[in-house]
Please model this.
Amino acid sequence: MTVPPPIAMLAELTHRCPLACPYCSNPQDLLGREAEMTTGEWADAFHQAAELGVLQLHLSGGEPAARPDLAELTAAAQGCGLYTNLITSGIGLTPRRLDALEAAGLDHIQLSLQGTSAGLADWIGGYKGGFDRKMKIAAEIKTRGIPLTLNAVMHRHNLDDLERTIEMAVEMGARRLEVASVQFHGWASRNRAQLLPTRAQTEAAKRIVAEAEQRLRGVLAFDFVPPDYYADYPKACMGGWGTAGLNIAPDGTVLPCHAAQTIPHLDFDNVRSKPLAAIWYEGAAFNSYRGTDWLPQPCRSCDRKESDFGGCRCQALALAGDAGAADPVCRKSPRHQAVLDLLEAGSTGDGGGFVYRRAAG
Amino acid sequence: MKLALAPSDRPFLPRGVRLAADKVRGGTVLLCPEKAIALDAIGEAILSRVDGSTSFKEIVAALAVAYDAPAEQIAGDVQRFLAGLRARMYLAVRP
Ligand code: SF4
Ligand code: SF4
Model:
């Protein structure tokens, strides 16, 4: 296949975060501050990304506000013409830091929501007082008119509050609401029994989103990621492995998706030692599952392969034990029973307490 | 809310939505929150006239002249394109 240039890049500036969400997509081996790239190294990576064809830059983490140089990094990204989006819990932002970010040209904020009340949100995020601080910064964002998306990560413990979540997005002046069902990678895979929604919740969520989409036309746009365990077919991973986007981990490791490091046989390059263009076009990890030539059966003879590329590699590894297999979420997968078993197990018993996302030791 | 624009509505790109040249692939893109839309020549011609002071009717009239096509036909195309952007909140309107 001819490899297209990437459109989007997710920069995981840091793994540090005051919150401890049990579904965090960061790896279970969290990197410390000493491993993080410097301001100059990030600025150089942004410059290379823009030259390579990246249009959208997502500043993420961890909590990107844990980096004192966040405004400087934003200015560097803007200097290369990148559309700059800040993905944040809001904790660590202040009016003064928002001043600096606006002055640096930040285009958009994506604010995460753990729950609709302090009790629920602080329990899920594992951080007392987090909800109140988030609401203060949300009000500040609204007053300034910074374009806002609310990102609500949904699971068994907050799906019943979906209607209130939608109301809150409107109250905050968000233009867009992402109703993002937990994906079972990273920390979420350790909390699966606690987080798996029920089938009834999944059906209700689809109904509520469809109704609200109609009612709030021109007020709030929706992006809905339904829980994929209940789907018939998998989602395309990131618009296709090595096709639309890339991630850079805090230490400069370049990844095809944020969970790719769970696939042990892949070798990842580092932007500190190799040009980003060479990593994208020639890197072994990017070429491993690119396109459709590598696909096994049943995907090889399936007409959906050009749209879902056989689904998620990390999920195939986690649930079928083989990163090169069809995503077991697919009902045509010979390993689909593994998903049905997990649903069965998840619907009985409450799975005990959360394993919070915290650094070891 | 109706997404269709009235003839006197004056559309504009809200903060956080902007046109940019795509230096690597060529052409013009509409950069939006977490989305980049590659524009074809028609899309670009429409959006280059979207400035918050030109009305829908005036945009259609200008395009009808530029493309030497009937205004009714142009109006349908422009309406579909702009209402689609408005549904995603990539376009706002002044009455
Ligand atoms: S998911 Fe939660 S713990 Fe993970 S980075 Fe985001 S706010 Fe922090
Ligand atoms: S068989 Fe493979 S390509 Fe077809 S829907 Fe399932 S995962 Fe996708």
Q: What stands out?
A: Chain A touches chain B through 26 residues (CB under 8 Å). Residues A 233-234, 298-299, 302, 304-305, 308, 310-311, 326-327, 330, 332 surround iron/sulfur cluster (ligand 2) (CB under 6 Å).
